[in-house]
Amino acid sequence: MTSNDVKPEWPLWEIFIRSQHGLAHKHVGSLHAVDGASAIHHARDVYTRRNEGVSIWAVRAADIVASSPGDKEALFDPAQSKVYRHPTFFPTPDGVKNL
Amino acid sequence: MYAQLVETGAKAVKTLDQMEPQERAFQERINAGIKTEPKDWMPEAYRKTLVRQISQHAHSEYVGMLPEANWITRAPTLKRKAILLAKVQDEAGHALYLYSAVETLGVTRDQTYLDLLSGKAKYSSIFNYPTLTWADIGAIGWLVDGSAIVNQIPLCRCSYGPYARAMVRVCKEESFHQRQGFDIMQALCKGTPEQKAMAQDALNRWWWPSLAMHGPPDELSANSAQSMAWKIKQNSNDELRQRFIDQTAPQIEFLGLALPDADLKWNEARGHYDYGAIDWEEFFNVVNGKGPCNQERLAARNQAWEEGAWFREAMSAYAAKQEQSDMQGAT
Ligand SMILES: [Fe+2]
Ligand SMILES: [Fe+2]
User: Fold this and answer.
1) What number is the average pLDDT over the span B5-32?
2) ipTM for the complex?
């Protein structure tokens, strides 16, 4: 079984689908494909067999820059003390409407 | 189930006090119901257990296409043929969602796949039984996918994010599989006496393997406790088996078929159906390669891999060439 030698794999792509209801593209999973066109083609077969979407984005997994769990505090803690960014921070006086 | 004997490497489940700080913090997050994601720290044994479980699950979906594909060209009507094609295509999709989830744990797709082809990795015992008649296609959808649903719904809450998300997708598609199977059985049961006998025969043959599919009884599954502590598994094998029996027994009666087990009886006091003894020796034999179709299944998958080699290579070569000419065009 010479063909069982491990040859370089087809690159990995992350797939994003926009559903019909005007929402943003959403990550649905990944797949292997040699290029963008075949990634879209495979994504159609793997992720949209039941009208799940009207638009597909395929992004090479290697091109995605992601935050790491170690950066969690540095990135997200500053937002925690800014409770005034939420409307519920402000009491609404009784009887005031449309606020 | 689709992953039946998953080694966790644990002899006993550690208490929080026995854990090192990092592992303890991990376990506390699990206990709090927080999902683990690919880049998060995780104990090596947790990662390895997930690799084993998810890859077994993926292989089961992929090998599971074979017994049903056996009847695509001989489906009794064009409608049944189109439905079966769609069903088998879904199983290919399930395999792909799961192979992707394994990959997030740092194992390459090809490595996972080659472990199946070499016989090193396991897949569900159920797919080593033959599909002898068209009624088997009904029985598989109804009983095997029915068992799969019982097992996979709790897996949607699994502690590992990518596995849980793959399961949500799978579960959305699984009801169609079970219903199309039941629909085939119903048509046969309403048909000629020969057709009904065919349905009965398929039920009799698939019933016990479908029960065994849920995995060894709790007292024989040493790894269950660890998987449950990690919330990879939420329910014990016996619990899920009982759930499947309780939901399926009334369906057998609805079809007007004879119960495939003389001990299958409603137990008012327990609030569950009682059932007869499962042949675990047969189960372990099938898992360990001695089922009726183990060799045939692996041979078919090796053949597909080998015969597809030229295509994989040609696609890579074409893409490399395109990229080169794009670069030349850009300068
Ligand atoms: Fe499936
Ligand atoms: Fe299925």
Assistant:
1) 84
2) 0.88
